[in-house]
Amino acid sequence: MKAAIIRETGPCSVIQFGDVPDPVLQPQQVLIRTGAVAVNPIDTYIRSGNVKQALPNPYVIGCDIAGTVVEVGAEVSRFKVGDRVWGSNQGLFGRQGTFAEFCAVDEPWLYSTPAAVSDETAAAGALTGITAHLGLFLHGGLTPGDVVFVNGGTGGVGSAVVQIAKAFEATVITTVGSEGKLNQARRLGADYVINYRKQNPYEAVAGLVDEVGKVNVWFETLRTPSPEETFPLMARRGRYILMAGRDARPVFPVGPFYVNDLRTVGFAMFNASAEEQAHAANDLNRLMAENRLAPLIGERMSLADAATAHELQEANTLNGAGTLSGKIVLIP
């Protein structure tokens, strides 16, 4: 089969596309003919070596997948040949990734794809959707009527946060970097959209407090968070959710934090159990089937273009290029 692989960590140029042996199906696994995969920042961190993982050699890159079941292991009970499925959390902890024509995935990490949802859509919303759901509910305790703020409302995770929070009756505030993205964020359901290139986001949120109240769930997607500016904008017992910024060392103002009973939670979706991720996936499936969650796809490429896709992802994640809205989806 064809796959995008690396034999050593390094820049995007270490990605090779070519023939590798078909996966050997284990009893607890499902063999999937890949319909679509998606690129995530974590994929680039693993490939570059910035996130250290024990990798097989060769290592198939990628976390997300959607496709069709072509074979099931002897211990598999939830799926049969012909079922459409999606999943994430691959390429981690010694597992092979998903950027291949066929993938063998352990059953607990897979979910049925709703009939009206395409493989591209399911793949695009896999890691980002689960991340958004875990942050909002497992860690953020979202309740109807909460005020939610998220940076980057047209990004992968940010756009999922906007749609999921709105579907659960929150008031949603977000930021974008252009007028075109402003309108896009509104279509996704954001109640208030701030163009951070024209207005200081913290000042803009402060200006909304009298109208909507302070923020109950601050979902931070920036790699450079600023608790010092954020905490005064948060409601008593507000939840400050961190899921980015590995090298960030911001000032942490203890006073505003403890006198308002704030909570801070950091999380990485791949630390969540299979059961926790499946709970999130069930909600995501329902929202996608009801057309209340439509993951944004910014670029479509061939699986053979995996190196180019990683370059585009890095340009936006690390260098703030602003040339990508939503996810990069690759098709075998």
What does this protein structure show overall?
There is one protein chain. This protein is of the alpha/beta class. It has two domains: 2-125 and 295-331, Quinone Oxidoreductase, Chain A, domain 1 (Alpha-Beta Complex), CATH 3.90.180.10; 128-269, NAD(P)-binding Rossmann-like Domain (Rossmann fold). The chain is built from eleven helices and 16 strands. Strands 3, 5, 6, 7, 8, 15 and 16 form a seven-stranded mixed sheet that branches. Strands 11-10-9-12-13-14 form a six-stranded parallel sheet. A three-stranded antiparallel sheet has the order 2-1-4, with no helix packed on it. Helix 11 links the parallel strand 15 (297-302) and strand 16. Helix 3 (126-139) packs across helix 4 (156-167) and helix 3 (126-139) packs across helix 10 (274-289). It starts with a strand and ends with a strand. The model has no long low-confidence stretch (mean pLDDT 96).
Question: How are the SSEs placed, and which strands pair?
Answer:
Elements lengths: L1 E5 L9 E4 L9 E11 L1 H8 L10 E2 L4 E8 L11 E4 L14 E5 L3 E3 L6 H6 L1 H14 L7 E4 L5 H12 L3 E6 L2 H10 L3 E4 L5 H6 L2 H4 L2 E6 L6 H4 L3 E9 L11 H5 L4 E4 L7 H16 L7 E6 L3 H12 L9 E5 L1
Parallel strand pairs: 9-10, 9-12, 10-11, 12-13, 13-14, 15-16
Antiparallel strand pairs: 1-2, 1-4, 3-5, 3-7, 3-16, 5-6, 6-8
Helix pairs in contact: 3-4, 3-10
